[in-house]
Amino acid sequence: MTKVQEIQQFLKKNNVDAAFITTPDNVFYVSGFQSDPHERLLGVMIFKNADPFIICPKMEVPDVQATGWTFDTVGHADTDDAWEIVNNAIQSRGISLNTIAIEKAHLTVERLERMEQLFEDASFLRLDEQLNGMRNIKSEDELVNLRKAAELADYAIEVGCNEIAEGKTEIEILMAVENAVKKKGAQKMSFDTMVLSGLKTASPHGTPGDRKIQKGDFILFDLGVVYNGYCSDITRTVAFGEPTDKMREVYETVRKAEQTAVDMVKPGVLAKDIDKAARDVIEDAGYGDYFTHRIGHGLGISVHEYPSITGTNEVPLEKGMVFTIEPGIYHPEITGVRIEDDVVVTATGVEVLTKFPKELKIIH
C-alpha cells in the first residue's frame, strides 16, 4: 500500500473528505518530492474518493514529475494567488469539502484563516497523529538509508578527531568535517554542526566560533548527515591531551548512563523508562542537576521527529522505531560531555546505527 492509499484509508475510516499535508518532510514522505519552499505554498491534497494533487511553486513542477509522482502537479507563480489555484483544482474535481484534516502543528494561523475563507462550511481536524504514527515505524528501505546516514556520521567524527590540533579553531575543524562528509556522498548536514571545546562544551546547544583548541580540552562534536532524505545525529566527546580526574569522572558517568539506556531498548519497554535508566545513573553519581534535557528524540526524515523520549512519555517501544539516546552532563566549572547514538528497536532488542567507539578517546 502506498502512503497516499494509507492516508485515503484513514480518511474513509474517519469519514473525512480530504487531507492537506504541508510540512515539507511529510510532503516528501507521502510523495517522494523533497523541497524547501521557503515562504511559498507547498502541499499535497489527498481526497477520500479522488486522485490527489501536489501544489508547489511553478518552477518546481518538473522536479515533482521527475520523482515519479503520477498524479496531478499544480504550479503557482510568485505573482499568483496560490490558494485560488488550490481551490480551482478542487472545484475541477467536483468535490465539496466539509471536513479537512490538516497538520495543526505546522499550518500557520494566516494559512488556516485563508482556508476557512475558501471552505467556509468546513471543519478542520488534526492529521498530525496519523502522520506521526505512519512515520514512527520505519520500513526496511528507510532503515537502509538511516544506516548509511549513520555510517557517514561515524566518518564525520573520525575526520573531526583527525583534524584536532593545538591552535586550530572550532570553525576550522567544523569546515573540514563538513567538506569531507559531503565529498563522501552526504546531501547536506542534518543541522548546524557543533564543534565545541574547553568549557564551551558545558553549553548543550553552544555555538562554534574562533576559540583555539588547547591541550587539556574536551572537544564535543554534535553533527548529523542527510542521505537520500534521511538523517543521522551523533555526539561524541574526546580529549585533547590528558583530562583531569574530574573530567574523566564526568565522561565515564555519561558513558555508563548512555550504555545503560541503550541496553534497555526492546519492544514493550516504555519510552519514559529509557530516560529514567540514564537519569538514574547520572543522579546516583551526583550530577543530576547538570543533565538538563530529555534522553532523546525520534529520527528519520526529520532530525527531530515523533516520539519524544522523555521521562513522562508512556508510549511503548515497537519494532522499527528509530530514535536517539543522548545523555549529557554540563558542568560549567568542570566540562560538558554528551554521548549520542541512533538506535533501532528490533524484534528482540536494539540495533545501534552509530558505531564510532565510546571509550574515552585521548588525542595527543
What features would you describe in this structure?
By secondary structure, this protein is α+β, with helices and mostly antiparallel strands. Helix content is 35%, strand content 23%. The protein contains 10 helices and 20 strands. The protein has helices at residues 3-13, 24-31, 61-66, 82-91, 109-118, 128-136, 140-163, 170-183, 245-264, 271-284, and strands at residues 18-21, 43-47, 53-57, 72-76, 99-102, 123-126, 188-189, 194-197, 217-223, 225-227, 230-231, 234-240, 296-298, 305-309, 322-325, 328-331, 335-338, 341-345, 350-352, 362-363. A hairpin with a 4-residue loop joins strand 18 and strand 19 (350-352). The longest helix has 24 residues, at 140-163. It is elongated.
Write the layout of secondary structure elements.
Blueprint: H1 3-13, E1 18-21, H2 24-31, E2 43-47, E3 53-57, H3 61-66, E4 72-76, H4 82-91, E5 99-102, H5 109-118, E6 123-126, H6 128-136, H7 140-163, H8 170-183, E7 188-189, E8 194-197, E9 217-223, E10 225-227, E11 230-231, E12 234-240, H9 245-264, H10 271-284, E13 296-298, E14 305-309, E15 322-325, E16 328-331, E17 335-338, E18 341-345, E19 350-352, E20 362-363
Parallel strand pairs: 1-5, 3-4, 5-6, 12-20
Antiparallel strand pairs: 1-2, 2-3, 7-10, 8-9, 9-12, 10-11, 13-14, 15-18, 16-17, 18-19
Helix pairs in contact: 7-8, 9-10
